[in-house]
Amino acid sequence: MFLLNRHPDHRQPLAEEDAATLGLAGAEEAGRFLAARDNHAETPLHALPSLAAELGIGALHIKDEGKRLGLGSFKALGGAYAVMHLVLEEAGRRLGRAVAVEELPKAEVKAIAAQMTFACATDGNHGRSVAQGAGLVGARSVIFVHSGVSNERVAAIARFGAEMVRVAGDYDQSVREAARVAAERGWIVVSDTSWPGYERIPGLVMQGYTVIVREALERLPEPPTHVFLQAGVGGFAAAVAGHLAIALGNARPTVTVVEPARAACVYETAKAGRPVTIAHSKPTVMAMLECYEPSLVAWRVLSRIGDAFMTVEEEDAVSVMNRLARPAGDDPAIVSGESGGAGLAGLIRAAGDNKVRAALGLDANSRVLIINSEGATDPGRYAELVGMAPDQVANARQPA
């Protein structure tokens, strides 16, 4: 399915609060927080000339967030960033002065953090980030996971010291349960989705993601003309698209939002022109994108700067995993998890459809940016789908 944005807000400026969250100053602050962390190396940006030629476009670059902060996902930038921010704010209130990120290791700040509990719901990656962030500052974390989250992903979160709570049902039900229990017990919910009256913390999570764009723009030979961004609740797509729009202004790229056909809440929201909750379908292999209700903040951004919305099928996601693991020509091998390559799956599907190509202005001069949003966050599942272990792929062929 493919849909151009017909919303009356399309191409209107971002709302003032969203421009502040996703703007240059916010991205700079997120960068400062990142620099204060161990293992904060910039993630690689790969050129894939062979695949670009095959798709009939001028250039294709993939930013590989599978290398981010040892967590294997772009979400390492969001939840942990919000946790650190909230601890510093609380420390500032209690100490009666501004507290800098460099002060997080100090005993007086650690003592305050130790009295704070952070909770969230997750499909896997966001929970790892919140748990890691809480561990970094010495706070407690309680992570709610639904029945579809694999035991391997649960164990990966628990390794950071989080208390794990299983919830019957799907992701959206786990979000509601996390919010209910946190309200009862005075915990702080760090969610990557937003709802009426709860926007600021998801905004901080999104602000953390702007680091990806800053790094990419510094490395790209020319700014992209197109981006294909995968969406679950839409926060990642909105953060990347929003910062690109602010950084590049009228030269911003055409933004296409890509979702699994089985969980296309942002697509259906775009179709309806307002946020909608969709019916549950069969589980999708793109488990990190399996969401049935969009983030309100994300939709407010995407209604303005999302130019098109589309869906991809289960086999598209698996095909991309295999294509990146076994590249053609001199393209590098990239480990991409089940949800990580959904944006590329969207590009491949769009490039193969003449009507969609024309609608998006995809041609031999197009410069496309894709974000590989996760590596093999469930190595066993990855090996099952690709026929190779993640380490085999990672060591197969890398650029000189």
From TrEMBL:
Alphabetical list of Pfam families matching this protein: PALP
Q: Which domain of life is it from?
A: Bacteria
The Tryptophan synthase beta chain-like PALP domain extends over 39-373
Record EC number: 4.3.1.15
Q: What class of enzyme is it?
A: lyase
Essential cofactor(s)? pyridoxal 5'-phosphate
UniProt KW keywords: Lyase, Pyridoxal phosphate
Name of the protein in question: 2,3-diaminopropionate ammonia-lyase
- What species is this protein from? Mesorhizobium plurifarium
